[in-house]
Amino acid sequence: MEARKWIADRMRQAGLAAEIDGVGNLIGRTPHARRIIVGSHTDTVPDGGWLDGAMGVVFGLEMARAFMETGGGGPIGLEIVSFSDEEGTFVSLLGSHSYCQTLDIQTALEQQDSHKCPLSQALHTAGIGDKPRIHLDPATHVAYLEAHIEQGPILEARGIPIGVVTAIVGIRRWHLDFIGQADHAGTTPMAMRRDASAALCDFAVKAADLCRTTGSANTVWNGGAIRITPGAHSVVAARADYTFSVRDADARVLTRIGAGINELLAQVGRVHNVLSVGTEMFSLAPTAMDSTIRDLIRSTASANGLRTLDLPSGALHDALVLAREVPAGMLFIPSIGGRSHAVSEDSKPEDIVNGARVLADVVTTIARRLA
Ligand SMILES: [Zn+2]
């Protein structure tokens, strides 16, 4: 809240009407009837870095200052937004879902943080629980632009200052259960075992092979959690639990891998004589960024003498939610060492300045084209 109030004051000093709404979204706008939204988020993860979403919000603030200092001409204005709880302390992408009216507010209010405090209580403690929520209006809002640090190593490794985000990747996540039988690990012949641990290991290796051979060049996957039960060196595992997820910018790739996972699960169950059950716990379709805005980011960077690289975003961003409502575009700047969600997160000053300049030029061009 202190950070939001700090930015709200600076928005007002720049001449914007600034307001914190009922879920903690901070919105600063010019008086124009049609506006381009520039936003990101100012919340962060525990022990997170200084740039993450905050950089994109500060870009918006600086853009608004320049806009107001030069007279705020033209029929298209600016709306600078710091979305609430992007990182999911209570609800992932809370602020952007509220803004776009794709939030189930009653369910959201019941969600608790790690201290068991529900969102409803946190909003009241912050003094905003009774405030109205501010929403996007397709008649008013003509586009959404977001700048963000890459949070990965690709731009730095390739020496490219501006990343053009093609899409926010889709995700599929499964919980896999392998149910065998506990037996003595010394006396039970191998051929008679129903070893859940062996089944899991076999599945894990083959699932990675499946993603490697049927995925795209950008497919990423992760076996994030394993539990072996009872988990003793002298007992054949009765049960093994595995969490596997895959991300890609192409929905067809995710469909293909999903079908492969189901086949593999059945095959591993047969080979190891265990019951294998897969439950899809989470699924999110990829969201493409607007192709016209992508072209515009590319040509604008080029006009500023900056090389670009098209790449998908493996992380979720507020642009994912906004892109379903208005034409949306997103640019990345390089992260030093690819580090993010850590105190060591940083970017070179010249990269930050270049990102701000390109984003401002893109917004100016969109405003001119739509005027
Ligand atoms: Zn972020």
Give a written overview of the molecule.
This protein is an alpha/beta fold. It is built from eleven helices and 13 strands. The strands form two sheets. Strands 1, 2, 3, 4, 5, 6, 11, 12 and 13 form a nine-stranded mixed beta sheet that branches. A hairpin with a 5-residue loop joins strand 1 and strand 2. The chain starts with a helix and ends with a helix. Zinc ion binds at residues 41, 52-53, 86, 148.
Write a compact overview of the structure shown.
By secondary structure, the chain is of the alpha/beta class. The chain has helices at 2-13, 54-69, 94-99, 105-110, 119-125, 154-158, 196-214, 251-272, 291-303, 318-322, 349-370; strands at 17-20, 26-29, 34-41, 76-83, 141-149, 162-168, 170-179, 220-229, 239-248, 275-284, 287-288, 308-313, 328-333.
List the helices and strands and how they pair.
Elements: H1 2-13, E1 17-20, E2 26-29, E3 34-41, H2 54-69, E4 76-83, H3 94-99, H4 105-110, H5 119-125, E5 141-149, H6 154-158, E6 162-168, E7 170-179, H7 196-214, E8 220-229, E9 239-248, H8 251-272, E10 275-284, E11 287-288, H9 291-303, E12 308-313, H10 318-322, E13 328-333, H11 349-370
Parallel strand pairs: 3-4, 3-5, 5-13, 6-12
Antiparallel strand pairs: 1-2, 2-4, 6-11, 6-13, 7-9, 7-10, 8-9
Zinc ion binds at residues 41, 52-53, 86, 148.
